[in-house]
Amino acid sequence: MRSSLTRRGLLAAGSGLAATAALPAVSGCSSLAAAASDPDTLVVHTQLGTTAPGSATYLSALDRFRAQNPGLKVKNLINGDDLGQVYETSRLARKEADVVMVNLYDKTLAWTDVDATVDVGGYLDDWRLRERVLPAALSAWTDGKGRLRAFPYFATNWPVAYNRALLDRAGVDAIPTTGDQLIAAARKLRAKGIAPVTVGGNDWTGQKLLAQIIQTFLTPDEARHAYSTGDFGSRGAREGIEYFTTLRDAGVFADKAQGLTSDTMNTQFNTQAAAAQSAMSSALAKVPENVARHTEVGGWPLADGAAHDKPTVIRAFTLIGFWISPNGVRKIEHVEKFIRFMYGPETVARFVQESGRDMALHTDAVSADFPLVAAAQRLGSGVSEVLLPDVYVPPAATQPLITATSTSFTRGTSAARVRAALESAYRSV
Q1: For the ranges 166-170, 246-250, 399-403, which has the lowest average pLDDT?
Q2: Do 385 and 395 belong together in one domain?
Q3: What's the confidence (pLDDT) of residue 50?
Q4: Do 20 and 105 belong to one domain?
Q5: Of 246, 140, 112, 233, whose CA–CA distance to 186 is shortest?
Q6: Shortest CA distance to 54 belongs to which of 100, 96, 101, 86?
Q7: CATH number at residue 326
Q8: Residue 181 counted as domain residue
Q9: Is the residue at 131 inside a domain?
Q10: Fewest CB within 10 A of the end CB: N or C in the chain?
Q11: Is 196 in the same domain as 299?
Q12: In the chain, how many domains are there?
């Protein structure tokens, strides 16, 4: 891989936004350039600040940070899913933000390797913050060359939420723990006009659930191999795909799941049109109180011969980290103040208590106002963990895998065609 960003390389691999369209999304070229060059202004580029979970807590934290550092200005740049493209465009112009708050996924996987951001391991030690980070988070954010890509911050639990009231209405006596029980429950729910499991089969939520189900028959090492290489031909991967198609064709997933998105999935569950969903912490935090009080969380049901002995969940520590850019290195004293503040126990606790966020840092705070988030945290050894594939999937395969996911959720698509669709997503890698 090349050592620096080029317009033909990393930028061209992105969403195709032109530079003239991308930079105005962060308040315009001139304002970004001025802020980036001002030694007394810290520029933070983040996905928090609008409706993203934790935004209100983050903006409040910024206000407190500014009050504690009156001589330091902070410019907050906000983008959504296009943050990676916008950041890369600004980096090509050497006008990038000093700190970037984004997850480890797709385009960002390459940033440290192409000098778009820097290895922060030395800073973590120099600032004596290593003991604040959960060991699993440090491992997840460290690349194959031993470089720490970013300061870990948000984590997530990803269990299955089951609406106990809807299950009771359909005569389902217990939360399903096996595939046969799940299929039987789906039949009873459909008889009552209730969608069984809702899922965004047309976006990343469906891709994650599909990956989770395929891993039913895979060890962690086998799963890493499959999602790193696109080789789904092993016995375990083929059995996992067959398990998925069996569940799908038995009516386990909501009708037309291949066209649903994360928004429609959450809406169906939160309005009690569906009995279950695979939901990460941020989605669990948004379940209305009248639904949450009769919702239980657990794992995805297993099939005979599974590689796991308990229903599975995804746990991940790469949801948001603090990346330092080359511009940030020039303002490293300001960056240190900001990260120390964000790593402070009070700030971390507020994200847990006010926003229901799971953290990649040690904290004693509890999500008391977010009972489903807290319940997911308590699952502990009662479930088995499978891998989040994000850090293993090559960036060029990420979007093609979403397309393959929609194909996979289309009822009647054979296991062989699902495998072919998954493997074809890696052809451009």
Answers
A1: 399-403
A2: yes
A3: 82
A4: yes
A5: 246
A6: 101
A7: 3.40.190.10
A8: yes
A9: yes
A10: N
A11: yes
A12: 2
Neighbouring CB atoms inside 10 A of 159's CB total: 28
Which of 21-30, 46-55, 121-130, 410-419 is the least confident region?
21-30
Q: Note the pLDDT of residue 9.
A: 46
Instruction: Give percent of the chain with pLDDT exceeding 90.
Output: 82
Asked whether residue 110 falls in the same domain as residue 247, the answer is: no
DSSP helix/strand/coil, 44? strand
What is the residue range of 399's domain? 158-315+375-424
216: in domain: yes
Same domain, 219 and 322: no
Q: Which residue pairs, CB below 8 angstroms and at least 24 apart, start in 414-418?
A: 414/245, 415/238, 415/241, 415/242, 415/244, 415/245, 418/241, 418/244, 418/245
Q: State the Cα–Cα distance between residues 181 and 417, nearest whole angstrom.
A: 26
pLDDT at 32: 59
Identify whether the C-beta of residue 281 lies closer than 8 Å to the C-beta of residue 358.
yes
Q: What are phi and psi of 33, to 5 degrees?
A: -60, -40
Given strand 274-278, what is the order of strands in its sheet? 195-198, 274-278, 160-163, 295-298
Q: Is 111:2 a contact under the CB 8 Å cutoff? A: no
In this predicted model, what pLDDT tens digit does every residue of 362-390 receive, in sequence order?
999 988 899 999 999 899 889 999 999 98
Q: Which residue has the higher pLDDT, 32 or 4?
A: 32
Tell whether 306 and 222 lie within a shared domain.
yes
Say if residue 322 is in the same domain as residue 218: no
Phi and psi angles of residue 275, each rounded to the nearest 5 degrees, phi first: -90, -20
The DSSP result for 86-116, as a single string, is HHHHHHHTT---SEEEE-S-GGGGGTTTTTS
Q: Say what the pLDDT of residue 257 is.
A: 96
The verdict on 147 and 282 lying in the same domain is no
Residue 8 — very low, low, confident or very high, per pLDDT cuts 50/70/90? very low
Work out the average pLDDT over 116-127: 97
Cα angle, residue 393 at apex, residues 315 and 244 outer, rounded to 5°: 65
Domain membership flag for residue 429: no
Q: Which long-range contacts (CB under 8 A, 24 or more apart) does 412-415 make?
A: 412/249, 413/245, 414/245, 415/238, 415/241, 415/242, 415/244, 415/245
- Type of residue at 64: R
CB 291, CB 267: distance < 8 Å: no
Distances 192 to 154, 195, 391 between C-alpha atoms, Å: 39, 9, 40
Distance (Å, whole) CA 314 – CA 388: 6
pLDDT recorded at residue 6 = 46
